Amino acid sequence: MQSIEDSIDGVELTASDVANPSSPELQQQQSPKQNKQQSSNELSSSQIELFLTMHNRKLTRELNGPQKKKTKYHLVILLCFLILVYGLSSTYATTNPNNGEEGNTSTGTGGNQQISITLTISQIVLIGLWIFVAIVITAIFGSSKFIHLLYWMLVYWPLLLVLASALVNDVLGSDTVWIVYMFIAAEVLTLVVFVCVNYIYPRFVTSSWFQKNGFARKWWRIRLLHDGVTMEYDGLWGRFSRKRYECRYIGEVNEDGLPHGKGVWSDDSYNGEILTGTWNNGHPVAPFSSRQYGGKGNTFAAVKLAFFMANDDTFEANKFMPTNDERPRCGVASVECSIAGDFMSNLPMASLIGDIQVEGEDGVTIGKLCKHLDDTSDTSLEEEEAPVSSLQISTNDPRGVQIDDHVYELTGLSFTKRIKQIVIDVIRTKDDEPTYTDVATDEESPPITEEQKQQIQMVSTTSDESGSVQNIRLQVRDWTNVRTKDALVFIPGFNSWLQHSLETFGQMVAMTKLSQKVYPVLFDWPGAQVLTYRYASLISASENNRKYFLQMLQSLKAEGITNIHIVTHSMGVQTLMNVFEDNSDGSPSAVSQCFGQAPSLQQDDVSSSVANLDKLVCRSITMLNPDYPLKAFNEHGFQTLRRVTSLVTVVGDSTDQALWWSSFINGCVNTFGWSQPSALDYEARTDNKGMQDPLGRKIDSLYVDGSEDLDETIEFQNGENATSSRGDNEALKVWLDCDVIDTTGLDTNVNDLRHSAYSVNSILLRDIEDIVVTGKRASDRSTLLHKSGNVYEYCHAPSFVSF
Q1: What's the whole-number mean pLDDT along residues 480-499?
Q2: SS3 4
Q3: pLDDT at 116
Q4: Which one of 184, 472, 475, 707 counts the least CB within 10 Å of its CB?
């Protein structure tokens, strides 16, 4: 088993300590409540409650299982099933020539019989129907835990009924009523077993009634070992299990003895886990990380996200007709995700932390909620400045030099072109006797031993040659360390309700290290449902949608969060383009005016301009599979984005099926003269009302005609006029100053519609992380290859290639 280092309040834990209950290091970390429990080998109610909580997590993993690759093996099984039944029936009829009269013809000598089994037209239709149902079930419910139930109830049992009826009628010539009764009994029994195993049993064994009456202790024969912490119990199914296992919790607890604060749970059963992180009254809450004890080392992580609800929808579903008439709401959610090994079918799973509250009411704002996303939010950052141990200095942005988490003292901005040198002081502070913090502060808790002090000293500090302890930190002259992070605002696509949006966004954050660098914020706009696609497009341009987006930015700014990254997906781009759309008089929108002006490549230095003081900084805008008209983007949409940021990235796929249907639907609706938001309009649409090219599919066409007058905000790619010509009469192409990423070649972790690979495709996720963290353009990122113009593609081999 690999070593897992988990630091709890300055005390280092390893997997060997977790596996060894008698380890003196762990004995010292027990809370006062746990120390009292050591005096008795009797289980407390809090220990039983904790056991049931973690047992329920284990049972959920067991019942749901991992996601599996979609294959057509079930069709092969059906074919083999047909051959087997016909073969057995033919063999039976050949060896019993007197059974049945119709359909049997005797030829040859010596009693050898040849039999012909016939099916009626209705029977053939039924068999074909059930095979079709099997294909549909696999396509819709392939990753659901209901798939096996549906196969048995809708495919296997009905097909067996048809074949058994044909066999009895044609071969045995007997009545088939009893077969129908057996079929009904099999269907009912299958349903009852499924419901009992997946719903009744888990809820029953984890219920408070089951716990209070002592059945939990008797069912798993739970016994407290001599150390007063480790519990020994029977396997997953209680007394029916053959093997006994051990589990325990080490860490902070509340007054009732339940885990609360920092702690580690370990369970050495196959589906058990080693969970390290934060607990709240007996339940693990984000942030935490977990690894399954057995199997492939399946790893899970939980992250915290802030969300801003600019709609009237609920947590579980969108309204059929989208509206945003009510006041905006905000809250915090926990999202648990699979990040390595097998990916569980029930993950990602989002749950609310606290209640959803009206934004601005009782002092609750999205900015304040962002500050509580950090695990250290309960300590005052103003009182104790965290030491700087690493620095990232870059010049990727045309605004000038930037140092992460620092602002230039002379201007108060994060960018500067004035500076000519950067001086970093390495500050060492020596302490003759380091201080140590006990996990438990009660008088009954044992003191930390000298051996533990040495271990803590080795982990947290370094020593010079004289043996004095040294604390090393970095300090940049003329720069001030700011104690806040950037905000990453994610705008989901169409038909994505809050829970689903949190799960996809949470998966993205969990599989990267973005939460260490940014505050993840979800802007949940009215996404509508499948049949109200067009209404979602209209409401994205509503006045309330613009006002609520502006309110979210102002709330972030009020808490000192000035650097903003924006990531959108699909129709979420329409919300982005609508809030940045210029006013009717040509002036920038209210949202645009919140941000400082992004410099052009020809300008000398605008980073220190007075106009940019007290403004938000838009560090990057990334559009994933954007559902937005290409010509509208080229004509005016790009200019509104380039005005506020110099890093605009478009990620698209030329085979995106969802965007093809979007183009078809919009083309049909526009043909009948239905209106659409002005941000989506373009000059050529008045003459051509057919299908309009979506930006996410036409990723090689982000250029303007070089023969026309260009707006000053349109820049050449990398400062050069990159042109190409397909014919003598074709005008020069002036490529927009944005990066275009072609994902058509990706074939891993991409669904059949090829519309949403951003949540699990590691190649795309690492690239998005690189954009947000480093701010590098596509030409400077090592994972990309230049294709043509402003288009890049990933250096990636197909999944079937191997050497």
Answers
A1: 91
A2: coil
A3: 57
A4: 707
